[in-house]
C-alpha cells in the first residue's frame, strides 16, 4: 500500500525515507515507522 500511495500522492514523499521504486525490503522497514489509525465518527451512545 505504501508503494502505491507514494506513486499516487507525490506530495507525501518528504515524509518518507523511501521512494516508490525502492526495494521491497526498504519499503517494509519504512512501513514499521508509520503506524496507521482508522478514524471514524464518535459513537453517539457514549457521550457524557
Please tell me about this protein's structure:
The protein has 48 residues and is mainly α. The chain has a domain at 1-32. Helices cover 31% and strands 0% of the residues. The chain has two helices and no strands. It has helices spanning 2-8, 24-31. The chain is elongated. The N and C termini lie far apart (38 Å).
Question: Which features characterize this protein?
Answer:
mainly alpha; 2 helices; 0% strand; elongated
Summarize the structure.
The protein has 48 residues and is an all-alpha fold.
Topology:
Layout: H1 2-8, H2 24-31
Tell me, rounded to a whole number, the average pLDDT: 88
**Tertiary shape:** elongated
The major β-sheet equals: none
Intertermini distance: 38 Å
Amino acid at each position: 500500500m505504501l508503494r502505491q500511495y507514494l506513486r499516487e500522492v507525490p506530495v507525501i514523499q518528504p515524509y518518507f525515507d523511501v521512494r516508490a521504486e525502492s526495494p521491497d525490503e526498504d519499503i517494509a522497514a519504512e512501513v514499521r515507522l508509520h503506524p496507521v489509525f482508522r478514524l471514524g465518527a464518535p459513537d453517539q451512545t457514549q457521550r457524557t
